[in-house]
Amino acid sequence: MSAANPGATSPQTVHVPLGDRSYDISIGNGNLAEVGRWVTSLRKVTHVVLISDGNVAKYYQQPVEDAIAAEGIRVTSLGVPAGEQSKSVPTAQSLWEAALADRVDRKSTVVALGGGVVGDLAGFVAATMTRGLDFFQIPTSLLAQVDSSVGGKVGINLPSAKNIVGAFWQPKGVLIDTAVLKTLPRREYLSGLAEVIKYGVILDADFFAYLEANVQPMLNRDPAVLQKIIARSCELKAQVVAEDETETTGLRAILNYGHTFCHALETVSGYGEYLHGEAVSVGMLCASRLGEKLGVFDAESTQRQAKLLSALELPVATPKLSETAILSAMQRDKKVEHGKLRFIVPHAIGKVVLTPDVPSEMALAAWREGIEDESA
Amino acid sequence: MSAANPGATSPQTVHVPLGDRSYDISIGNGNLAEVGRWVTSLRKVTHVVLISDGNVAKYYQQPVEDAIAAEGIRVTSLGVPAGEQSKSVPTAQSLWEAALADRVDRKSTVVALGGGVVGDLAGFVAATMTRGLDFFQIPTSLLAQVDSSVGGKVGINLPSAKNIVGAFWQPKGVLIDTAVLKTLPRREYLSGLAEVIKYGVILDADFFAYLEANVQPMLNRDPAVLQKIIARSCELKAQVVAEDETETTGLRAILNYGHTFCHALETVSGYGEYLHGEAVSVGMLCASRLGEKLGVFDAESTQRQAKLLSALELPVATPKLSETAILSAMQRDKKVEHGKLRFIVPHAIGKVVLTPDVPSEMALAAWREGIEDESA
Ligand SMILES: NC(=O)c1ccc[n+]([C@@H]2O[C@H](COP(=O)([O-])OP(=O)(O)OC[C@H]3O[C@@H](n4cnc5c(N)ncnc54)[C@H](O)[C@@H]3O)[C@@H](O)[C@H]2O)c1
Ligand SMILES: NC(=O)c1ccc[n+]([C@@H]2O[C@H](COP(=O)([O-])OP(=O)(O)OC[C@H]3O[C@@H](n4cnc5c(N)ncnc54)[C@H](O)[C@@H]3O)[C@@H](O)[C@H]2O)c1
Ligand SMILES: [Zn+2]
Ligand SMILES: [Zn+2]
Q1: Do B131 and A160 touch (CB under 8 A)?
Q2: Hey, are the CB atoms on A334 and B96 less than 8 Å from each other?
Q3: Is B352 annotated as a binding residue?
Q4: What is the pTM of this model?
Q5: Which of A19, A108, A193, B47 is the most exposed place for a label (fewest CB within 10 A)?
Q6: Nearest 10 degrees: CA dihedral of A170, A176, A180, A186?
């Protein structure tokens, strides 16, 4: 489990087992150059609609377009502005219309090149254009590589609710190139690491220990360590998704560890103040303290998480915000049923439990005790 | 196969066999009154989003709402303007937002009450709201009862293309009440009969003969005959759909008998000039004459169709329109591949064959010979 020599890294594959919707995630360092051959190895493709955002297109659109075109495939490149606002009905409509104007048909394939915003949006366009087009993902943010590109959730926002319009639409393949993370802004990169740590806490204590042992290579974006943590994160998410593809059994809920506090924090602080992974960082520690209060989790394990998150420059302190606002945001969160609060509570590093009927005063206390670095 | 006494009609069920997406179509006379019990017999439902258009809501929204509410189900009634323009992105957006404003969640159920426009639109909203809601159809036009409510195609239009954005989203059940056809405008009703006749020509010679023998009861909207022809149409469409649910094998294409000519006619005459079934009527006769020219179909069978369509007050003559425009519309039709014209050509009443590589001059001749009642 030690960091290998970057030069020695060879590409690897994570299989996502979903019956006739199964597919592979190909992870490597520099494999973006092979995107054309990768696409044609998976499907007979004659026309690609390539969707990207401005920040990503600047670096990667031309090489991807060229590599795909080199296989004799016609490419329609469409761009959207970077940022969450592009996950909207008007942007989806502009993509539908632009694809149609360039002769999209039922045999066309959509390729998403970008972070979670582009993946969710392009996936929704793929799911709905001519009642469903083949879809490939090339996630370029760490968050997209370890989280949003796995699991088949695609969608857009309405002004009053995130991800409320969408579909389950699995890609035919996902290509992850760790080298593209070089251009990802540092804060975005660190934010993605919070979700990586989450997988360790919810499912894999060894993986958590590996992360603790590799803080410096992670900060340096060492390719071998990146490949290792991305592949393991994808494997763990794929396992959960395979057991509950369309979120009907409730098993998929464990992926929301830390996320009830996180969503409340994002809502009350105003979207944009915290990056998602930063709010996850704070939220996981709240959930851990809640575990302590419920008598199922020990303080040392909370401290281990706080130490790792801090070392990766993620926020660990709860900010001072109105408790009434936090509580009402948690009550509106989708993990609340019939007015009672439900949390994913850790029992040990590597094990979490969906816990209904948590008293709201106890949840607020777990929140409050994180203020002013009390948790560090 | 003779027309039964209306009083003697008992409800019947057509099963649509689609693996774990199978469902039943319940057909009766006056069964709308039982919609509440019907819904609860199929699923545990606590919240219904009922979508209808102005024309249909006027007669049927209140009784349906009351019957559903009587089962202790919360109902959110949403209305859209009648007409094809409602199958649009802005209307879908307004429905998503209105449903959300009235607390839609993943356990809500969408019920479409209306013609094909409402069915396609509400189905698309169901397919996409919170990544997919349960969906029930109560088709109220004859076209919706025999065609659009069977098969799971849902969707909306873009300004430049019909049905281009959508999904395959099967309902959990379809309820058909022949009594609601009483209020359907006569021209809409007759238009729906063209699709009924289409099923006879493509798949069932006995059914075609039954239609020939029951012109007067059909014109009178006799409930027993209506139930018979609707049930048989649903059965035949369900058979085809079951073999090619997502239109991948090409088998589903036979449902497009008459439709290449029909779409060209609709496009060139300007949408709204012909109702869809009226254009299907003209189109089926063009396809039949094409069959004669190809030496696979006999003139008497073309005449039988023309006589039946005429008796049901459907147009049989080709209108005078630019042949260049008709040809280019046919070439853009989705049944054209690689520039060659493909048609569903009848070989006998009850049997059609997908025929590629039809010379465009022959297709135009089949069109032209219908001008000025030459076919009657
Ligand atoms: N579908 C799912 O299961 C799922 C799961 C988690 C999150 N999400 C969604 O993902 C979105 C967030 O994803 P995100 O954090 O990737 O946001 P993002 O897509 O906005 O990317 C973050 C920023 O980094 C830029 N960027 C991405 N890759 C880059 C690269 N290689 N070099 C330079 N810049 C790059 C983007 O342009 C953007 O400015 C949210 O909309 C969220 O709802 C979806
Ligand atoms: N999904 C499919 O497989 C499929 C198949 C064929 C057609 N379609 C779609 O169906 C649509 C056409 O359907 P349509 O012909 O039902 O059109 P429609 O829904 O517009 O209905 C026709 C008219 O009849 C009115 N109406 C319907 N039922 C009535 C009733 N019982 N009493 C009084 N008025 C009533 C409507 O308000 C409308 O004015 C098109 O958009 C077409 O694309 C879909
Ligand atoms: Zn998250
Ligand atoms: Zn039709």
Answers
A1: no
A2: no
A3: no
A4: 0.95
A5: A19
A6: 70
